[in-house]
């Protein structure tokens, strides 16, 4: 009888095989999902790293171009270069003392802009005028209101 109970609860061999195959497939799918997520993240990281490298290369290229432009500007605006250009254009230096100045009607010379008045010390009242609404407290305001109400009711205020 003991054998019959064990035999009743025991599953068929094909069911055990299906359970093992199912468990194996679930583990395999889970591993595939983890591997897919890992590959996706590492792919994004690699493409982002590559974009960073390209942008750093562009920064270096632009920095070299700016330095080259600054060097050429310094060479062109140097005193020696300016004198060579003066000579090649057959221009001559002129003494400012001997210069002829022409007055142009309607022209006004540039004036300096005053953004703020000069600091000064005021001899009188140091505080600017402040309205009484901003100098009284809430209790003072309540007292005034109560006094006005009592006066309007015909009572005397204390």
Task: Please summarize what this structure is.
With 158 residues, the protein is mostly helical. The protein has four helices and no strands. It has a domain of 76 residues.
Structural write-up:
The protein is mainly alpha-helical and 158 residues long. 62% of the residues lie in helices and 0% in strands. The protein is built from 4 helices and no strands. The radius of gyration is 47 Å and the shape is flat.
Number of helices: 4
| C-alpha-based Rg, rounded | 47 Å
Structural class: mainly alpha
Could you spell the SSE succession in H and E letters? HHHH
Strand percentage: under 5%
Query: Main beta sheet, described?
Result: none
Helix content: 55-70%
Mean pLDDT: 85
Poorly predicted residue ranges = none
Overall geometry: flat
Keywords:
mainly alpha, 0% strand, flat
Per-chain topology:
Layout: H1 2-9, H2 13-76, H3 79-88, H4 138-153
